[in-house]
Amino acid sequence: METTLDVRALFKLSYGLYIVGATWERKCNGQIANAVMQITAEPICVTTCLHRNNLTTEFIRKSGVFSVSVLEQDVPMPFIGNFGFKCGRDIDKFCNVQYRPAPLGSPFILDWTVAVLEAKVIAVQEVHTHILFVGEVASAEVVKEGDPLTYADYHRLKKGKSHKNSPTSVFNDVKGL
């Protein structure tokens, strides 16, 4: 049986656009992620998948906690770029951003965010170039009413591209980016 791998089919999966954050030794870091989803209801657990070399991944491994800030549809590209295309080892991504510590210490971003949640890591799985974190949700709240930004809208409306460390960076080749 002949198999085909048309990566455009993966572009039909539904994603959101989030900032996953963590804190270690009083330093906050966060990154854009589209790989976040709820996986259980009792208890409520979510998962995120981040590149193994990212600073946020390092902070989550050390702290055992992560936050998710759900971005709103009107978020400007420079805000996304700050968290998606810059390295927290080189800059303080939070220096011009409104945020507050969540109950377990990770950062809740308040700018351009419709909802936030914080999770305590209960499982970690290495998956080739990425690390899958499963977390039990410890807190969650709606920041404001509005529509969340989907990953499809990010590409279609904002003409965004995927970072080379993103699990969906293959879409850049498909789209000619």
Give keywords.
177 residues; alpha+beta; Pnp Oxidase, Chain A; 7-stranded antiparallel beta sheet; two-stranded antiparallel ribbon; globular
CATH fold label: Pnp Oxidase, Chain A
CATH class reads Mainly Beta
How helical, in percent, are the residues? Answer: 10-25%
**How many H/I helical runs?**
4
Mean pLDDT score? 90
Helix-strand makeup class? alpha+beta
Q: What ranges have pLDDT less than 50 throughout 5 or more consecutive residues?
A: none
CATH superfamily: Electron Transport, Fmn-binding Protein, Chain A
Annotation, overall tally of beta strands: 9
Radius of gyration: 16 Å
Number of domains: 1
Task: Provide a descriptive summary of the structure in words.
This protein is α+β, with helices and mostly antiparallel strands and about 180 residues long. It has a single domain (about 5-175), classed as Roll (Pnp Oxidase, Chain A), CATH 2.30.110. About 15% of the residues lie in helices and about 40% in strands. It is built from four helices and nine strands. The chain has helices at about 55-65, 75-85, 150-155, 170-175; strands at about 20-25, 25-35, 35-40, 45-50, 65-70, 100, 105-110, 115-125, 130-140. It has a seven-stranded antiparallel beta sheet. Strand 1 and strand 2 form a beta hairpin. The longest helix is centred in the middle third of the chain and has 9 residues, at about 55-65. The termini are far apart. The mean pLDDT is about 90.
